[in-house]
Amino acid sequence: MRSRAGALALVVVVVAAGFGAAACTGTDPYDALERPDPVEIEETTTTSEADLTGVPLAPVIGSTTTSVAIGPGPVTIVGHVEGPDGVVPGAIVQLERLVGDGSASMRVPTAPDGTWNASNVLGGRYRVRAWRAPDLASARPSIVFVDGSEGQQAIDLRVEPVGGVRVDVAVAPDPPIVGEEINLKVRVAERSVDAEGVVRDTPTPGVSVALGGSGDWAVGSPNPSTTGTDGSTIFRLTCGDEGAQPLFATIDRGESYALAIQPCVDPTASTTTTTSSPDDDGSPSSTSTSSSTSSSTTSTTEA
């Protein structure tokens, strides 16, 4: 009985050994995974936080700005606006409170009697102006100091008419040379005041401009001439004599405007100089006269 049991145990061991060998052949889909390489961990060091409290900051170019207020305050500013024909209703008054390089502003309208008021404002330095589009504006703003104490202070303003046609001129060469052709540009524009109180010149195209006057001028281009899209037209003229030569521009509305032109110069004109020589006793007894002539060349360019 013992010999048979020992033989059976040997068979079981052999079978088990064979199964283990088959498991290591690599054909089984459930082969054991290969052992991975160990993970390399980098060594780290710790440092204390840098102390930057002693590092100075670089300077910044410029200045610190603060907002400027115009109110609320204890002051009421009142006034009225007048024009050439009396009080001006429907005008706009702009008040700017100035503090250093900054400012704060407000606008108030005028009543039918031309009066206005700005309530609950602060004291200080103010720049004040008025306008009424499209024809009236202050020639220059008023700079006033408003006391900051409680109560009313009055500022009266005046506006002037600025609307209508404006005719200006440019000449090349300037001043004109006698006997040489010049370019004379005449510009026609409508001047008006916009809603912001700014005086603007709007070029007027298609306007007929005719030159005339009592000066000694010869016109070498069409006269009259019509303004282009920029409101201007160019004439070619020749001045016939030195000195002031009045010239006017008449537009198709029948209005005439004097053109501001420098007096004509004649570089070839003679200059006479008189000198005297004293006698032996020191008293003047004889005179001599000399004359000189100068000339120059001038080129005419488009104005």
Label this structure with key terms:
303 residues; mainly beta; Immunoglobulin-like; six-stranded antiparallel beta sheet; five-stranded mixed beta sheet; 22 strands; disordered C terminus
Question: What would you note in describing this structure?
Answer:
- This protein is mainly β.
- Among the domains are: 87 residues, Immunoglobulin-like (Sandwich), CATH 2.60.40.10; 95 residues, Immunoglobulins (Immunoglobulin-like, Sandwich), CATH 2.60.40.
- The chain is built from one helix and 22 strands.
- Strands 3, 4, 6, 7, 8 and 11 form a six-stranded antiparallel sheet that branches. Strands 1, 2, 5, 9 and 10 form a five-stranded mixed sheet that branches. Strands 12, 13, 14, 16 and 18 form a five-stranded antiparallel sheet that branches.
Record the SSE blueprint.
Blueprint: H1 2-23, E1 75-83, E2 86-87, E3 92-99, E4 102-109, E5 115-121, E6 124-132, E7 136-137, E8 142-146, E9 151-154, E10 157-158, E11 160-161, E12 164-172, E13 181-193, E14 199-203, E15 208-212, E16 217-219, E17 225-226, E18 232-239, E19 248-251, E20 256-258, E21 270-278, E22 284-293
